[in-house]
Amino acid sequence: MVAERTETTMQQTFNEWLHRLAFLVSLVSVILIAAGALVTSTKSGDAIPDWPTSYGALIPSYLAGGVLIEWAHRVVAGILALLVLVLTTILAFSSVPRWLKWMGVIALVAVIAQAVLGGLRVLVVSHERVQEVALTVTKVSHPDTARILFAVAHATLAQIVLALAFAITLFTKPLKGKVRGAECEVQEMGGRKGETILLRLNRFRYIIVALIALIFAQLILGAVMRHMEAGLIIPDFPTSFGKIVPTFGNLPFDPNNPTRMTYNEFAFKVAINFAHRVNGFVIAAVIFALFWIVRSFPFVPLRRLGNWLVGLVIVQIALGGLSVWTELAVPVTIAHVAVGATLLGLSVLLLCQTFAHSRLTLAKGDGR
Q: Domain range spanning residue 44?
């Protein structure tokens, strides 16, 4: 009996530390995305021309300005890759379900691919041979276009890693003291009522999937906008050139602009910026709808996540406006990117929670 208790205690301690490690990976993922926003906002992406070394060394002799910002970004990326490797290894040799082990493997592959794409984004500008291969593979005619493609893919994988980290954090959460509380929530859900709850959870899940897709698209639009330097192409907010919808056939274009931008380039940047704005308000509407629906569920975790999503999306819209009004002030831009990534992570958590509560309701309905 004593041996069994000791073994149970050791298992609980292991689960708690595994969950803490997964939480740390989630936290560092958000920090890395914020660091990437700092690099883009300060135009420090090309401050170090080589990769994976920095001016031929692990630590460049000159650490200031853009070099420091880019090098710090690489350090955070290295720490995240190491943490994901440790987490994946522990998951592989633990007693967690096989699908959870595969989530760790996918996260590891994604973080490695993210690092490689980040390196290619640097080398496509500074390394002639890499540039030639990149232009051939991507079928684009200009290195800047290839650079943007690599940068957007790099940012997209960062969001995937973050979503996986949030999901792993939830699924490694120790159940001690929580299963009993969750059972209290569904103790009267047997029979007909349990079936109704399950049906509503299934329908609710489709809305969450749509929200995740919208947020993911929004983060990609934001990455494209930042790397194309289109964040201030529409100089006012919440209006666009003083109107609700900009007149795309007659935009206020300056043909003598210092960047020698053509009208078509200008119109494309305006379209990307405006799409980002419209999608942001659509996301807010969906989150408010989810918040209204989730209040009718007898599950406290779902309601808490709904509250967090509403609070963060209000903050996010305010930060979007501040980004324009402050002309992309670096702290505001970083906060805007970090909150957007957190919204994605919390939406993934909300989806995962619906599956957890579906299993619990089914078990209660079956009398288990």
A: 1-176
